[in-house]
TrEMBL record:
InterPro entries: Peroxidases_heam-ligand_BS, PyrdxlP-dep_Trfase, PyrdxlP-dep_Trfase_major, Sec-tRNA_Se_transferase, SepSecS/SepCysS. It comes from Theropithecus gelada. This is O-phosphoseryl-tRNA(Sec) selenium transferase. The record marks E74 as: May act as a substrate filter by repelling compounds with a negatively charged alpha-carboxylate. Substrate binds at R97, S98, Q105, R313. It catalyses: O-phospho-L-seryl-tRNA(Sec) + selenophosphate + H2O = L-selenocysteinyl-tRNA(Sec) + 2 phosphate. GO terms for biological process: conversion of seryl-tRNAsec to selenocys-tRNAsec; selenocysteine incorporation. GO terms for cellular component: cytoplasm. Keywords: Cytoplasm, Protein biosynthesis, Pyridoxal phosphate, RNA-binding, Selenium, Transferase, tRNA-binding. TRNA binds at R271, R398, K463. The modification N6-(pyridoxal phosphate)lysine is found at K284. PROSITE patterns: PEROXIDASE_1. Its cofactor is pyridoxal 5'-phosphate.
Length: 501
């Protein structure tokens, strides 16, 4: 309702009451105006009525919601199901145009405004999270792997001779397949073991750059967030290598926005060397449905080049989801979630440490990994090859999701490349282990329930091992008695001693 509508309403209802309602509406409109003027995430989150008012105001700016619209084209925002239309708040046209995902659509001013505001808010949050000098970013309706592929395809036009991507190993399929899908040959750099941690082998990286030649290398593809005992790559040193040899640097920052340490590494890498773009997931960092990512960087023109590489229009759903989430939380709400995540990491670490010691195991010392933890499973692996994987199955059937049990010697082939010790980020890690992570949104009750169920599962696996050990002892004893006449006394004694031990 505008001023004229309120004035007309005063003829039907007491003017004092109408003016009060008008003032209430202005308070909503004031929040919306500040958002449009500043382009930053509000400090305090909005209530649902303000959010819905804002989304409705944007939606009626799209041509498919015009009262007198007459569409005679092949794509006019027609939707067969009213439920689908409501699910999308009647934003039907998507974002971007055929030549640029960030371009404005003439027939969808509201959706275009939504896209611009979302990108502006996300940029603000990235700065708040620690990457203060980021120049530009945009939300893309693809998960992290395909978003990395888009970055590599953009670099292809800048480096026509390049056919290799140098990649410090991380055992995660999508980031590996992103390079294959883009048509490049990954050069896998094995990590080095330092204490319990798996860290970047900088000497081998630089040696490979010299061996292959900088012109033939598309980029170095590094990683921040990862499963322990691997830790974030040495981004500062890799950035310096990239700057020295004139090689682009793309960072997989999948769930690193929630970690001040990961964001600090990116900021420092850009300060001392070269980082061209860093990619992060929407669902892992902002608690929205899977399907979106943020591509960000320190060179505005290069980020624009990536957005123009995206073919065709795109779904607005990921942008809409993260816009609603950030406006609901506000910057203070998001900072609170980041603070709580750090606290939960410390709590989870302490609880796993206590439990591991009770079972003669230990929490691996991985101080450079700010999100993921690992607990050894040596006593399980020593007694039974299948006990480790059995523990993982037991946790899963007891509704523990996210925990990863990593056995020794697993072999996996991904897009024609064979990885030994797959999931452990190295060919021969010293022991089997279990992963758990403290990610954004985790609560204390999640940790307590996980520890309780893990304790029960470890007891059950140990009990099963003890039973099998007793069965094996009985079988050995029977065989020894039957074969007593065939064995010298000293051999028989040794056999019994082995069985007893």
């Amino acid at each position: 309702m505008n001023r004229e509508s309120f004035a007309a309403g005063e003829r039907l209802v007491s003017p004092a009451y109408v003016r009060q309602g008008c003032e209430a509406r202005r308070s909503h409109e004031h929040l919306i105006r500040l958002l449009l003027e500043k382009g930053k995430c509000p400090e305090n989150g909005w209530d649902e009525s303000t959010l819905e008012l804002f989304l409705h105001e944007l939606a009626i700016m799209d041509s498919n919601n015009f009262l007198g619209n007459c569409g005679v084209g092949e794509r006019e925002g027609r939707v067969a199901s009213a439920l689908v239309a409501r699910r999308h708040y009647r934003f039907i046209h998507g974002i971007g145009r055929s030549g640029d995902i960030s371009a404005v659509q003439p027939k969808a001013a509201g959706s275009s405004l939504l896209n611009k505001i979302t990108n502006s808010l996300v940029l603000d949050i990235i700065k708040l999270a620690g990457v203060h000098t980021v120049a530009n970013c945009f939300v893309v309706p693809m998960a992290t792997g395909m978003s990395l592929t888009l970055c590599f395809l953009t670099l292809r036009h800048k480096r026509p001779k390049a056919k290799y991507i140098i990649w410090p190993r991380i055992d995660q399929k999508s980031c590996f397949k992103s390079m294959i899908t883009a048509g490049f040959e990954p050069v896998v750099i094995e990590n080095v073991l330092e204490g319990d941690e798996l860290r970047t082998d900088l000497k081998t990286v630089e040696a490979k750059v010299q061996e292959l030649g900088p012109d033939y290398i598309l980029c170095i593809h590094s990683t921040t967030s990862c499963f322990a005992p691997r830790v974030p790559d040495r981004l500062e040193e890799l950035a310096v290598i990239c700057a020295n040899y004139g090689i682009p640097h793309i960072v997989n920052n999948a769930y690193g926005v929630q970690s001040s340490k990961c964001m600090h590494l990116i900021q420092q890498g850009a300060r001392v060397g070269r980082i061209d773009a860093f990619v992060q997931s929407l669902d892992k960092n902002f608690m929205v449905p899977v399907g979106g990512a943020i591509i960000a960087g320190f060179n505005d023109s290069f980020i624009q080049e990536i957005s123009k590489m995206y073919p065709g229009r795109a779904s607005a759903s990921p942008s809409l989801d993260v816009l609603i989430t950030l406006l609901s939380l506000g910057s203070n709400g998001y900072k609170k979630l980041l603070k709580e995540r750090k606290e939960m990491f410390s709590y989870l670490s302490n609880q796993i440490k206590k439990l591991s010691e009770a079972y003669n195991e230990r929490l691996l010392h991985t101080p450079h990994n700010p999100i993921s933890l690992a607990m050894t499973l040596k006593t399980l692996d020593e007694h039974h090859d299948e006990a480790v994987t059995q523990l993982g199955s037991m946790l899963f059937t007891r509704q523990v999701s996210g925990a990863r049990v990593v056995p020794l010697g697993s072999v996996q082939t991904v897009s024609g490349y064979t990885f030994r010790g797959f999931m452990s980020h190295t060919n021969n890690y010293p022991c089997a282990y279990l992963n758990a992570a403290s990610a954004i949104g985790m609560k204390m009750q999640d940790v307590d329930l996980f520890i309780k169920r893990l304790d029960k599962c470890l007891k059950a696996v140990r009990k099963e091992q003890s039973k099998e050990s007793d069965d094996n002892y009985d079988k050995t004893e029977d065989v020894d008695i039957e074969e007593m006449a065939l064995k010298p006394d000293n051999v028989l004694l040794d056999t019994y001693q082995d069985a007893s031990s």
